[in-house]
Amino acid sequence: MPQDEAVIGCTGKVLIGTRGSTGPGEVLVRVRGGSETFLAWSEDPLPAGATVLVIESRGCREIGVIEWVDPLDALDGGTAGAG
């Protein structure tokens, strides 16, 4: 199946929680100047609302994801709006 390389490295929000190895969830990914939904597989279950990073394309609108915490969020407390 053709892979969608454009989604790798993108972030998204879990719409329907993943179930780890027992099944996929659904993720809304910011890609190509918009947002698209994909079936998402993860090693560990992820709840709805979690932020994820796409680590692989499995083809046919299926992706592999991991939970993601943006390291820049830690800077919000002291530097937001600076510059």
Give an account of the 3D structure:
With 83 residues, the chain is mainly beta. It has a single domain, classed as Beta Barrel (OB fold (Dihydrolipoamide Acetyltransferase, E2P)). The protein contains one helix and five strands; from the N terminus they run βββββα. The protein is globular. The model has no long low-confidence stretch (mean pLDDT 90). InterPro entries: NA-bd_OB-fold.
Question: Topology, please?
Answer:
Blueprint: E1 11-16, E2 25-31, E3 34-41, E4 51-59, E5 62-67, H1 76-79
Parallel strand pairs: 3-5
Antiparallel strand pairs: 1-2, 1-4, 2-3, 4-5
The CATH topology name reads OB fold (Dihydrolipoamide Acetyltransferase, E2P)
Task: Count structural domains.
Answer: 1
Q: Strand count, sense and closure of the main sheet? A: 5 strands, mixed, barrel
Summed up, the helix count is 1
Beta-strand segment tally? 5
Quaternary assembly: single chain
* Helix and strand element order: EEEEEH
Outline the low-pLDDT stretches. none
Radius of gyration: 14 Å
CATH architecture title: Beta Barrel
CATH class call: Mainly Beta
Average of the residue pLDDT scores? 90
The CATH superfamily turns out to be Nucleic acid-binding proteins
Q: Could you give the order of strands across the largest sheet?
A: 1-2-3-5-4
Strand content: 35-45%
> Whole-Å distance between the termini?
46 Å
